Amino acid sequence: MSKYQGSCHCNAVQFEIDADIESCVQCDCSLCKRKNAVMLRIPKDKFRLLKGEDALSRYEWNTRAAKHYFCKHCGIYTHHQPRTRADMIGVNLGCIDDVDASKLAVERLPGSQLSGGR
Predict the structure, then answer these.
(1) Which domain holds residue 95?
(2) DSSP letters for 38-103
(3) What is the CATH number of the domain that holds 41?
(4) What distance lies between CA 72 and its chain's CA centroid?
(5) How many CB atoms lie within 10 A of CB 43?
(6) How many domains does the chain have?
(7) What pTM was estimated for this model as a whole?
(8) How far apart are CA 42 and CA 3, in angstroms?
(9) Angle formed at CA 8 by CA 51 and CA 24, multiple of 5 degrees
């Protein structure tokens, strides 16, 4: 397992993960489709917010079970608490400079089928 550093665009939010990054997920719900993020799901204990808790803004919608976090300064989505996996964190791989998500196998998640796609 490797350690990776990630951040939002302005570096106000910084985090670290422990993971073997071999594949990723992309959800097709109405929010994920719009942010077009490629994500890695990892156990919660493998994610550490190093800086910027006060710089995070949280977005919840529909059932309010999922929690999506964005930097309130630059607007970048950094991570989220998935609705269907409370034990996991979804990390935006675009926030990790050492990872080229375009070279990874992508699993498509059918989030649009949950609660009418909203």
Answers:
(1) 2-117
(2) -EEEEEGGGEEEEE-GGGEEEE--TTS-SEEEEETTT--EEEEE-SS-TTEEEEEGGG-TT--GGG
(3) 2.170.150.70
(4) 15
(5) 13
(6) 1
(7) 0.88
(8) 12
(9) 110
Q: How many CA atoms lie within 13 A of 118 on its CB side?
A: 6
Give the residues across from 108 on adjacent strands. Answer: 26
Are the C-beta atoms of residues 17 and 46 closer than 8 Å to each other?
Answer: yes
Amino acid code (one letter) for 46: K
Q: In this structure, what are the phi and psi dihedrals at residue 77, rounded to the nearest 5 degrees?
A: -75, 120
CA atoms within 13 A on the CB side of 107: 9
Q: Which two tokens stand for residue 102?
A: 């375009």
pLDDT tens series, the chain, 118 aa: 999 999 999 999 999 999 999 999 898 888 888 988 999 999 999 999 999 999 999 999 888 888 999 999 999 999 999 888 889 999 999 999 999 988 998 888 777 776 554 4
Q: Which long-range contacts (CB under 8 A, 24 or more apart) does 53-60 make?
A: 55/8, 55/12, 55/13, 56/13, 59/31
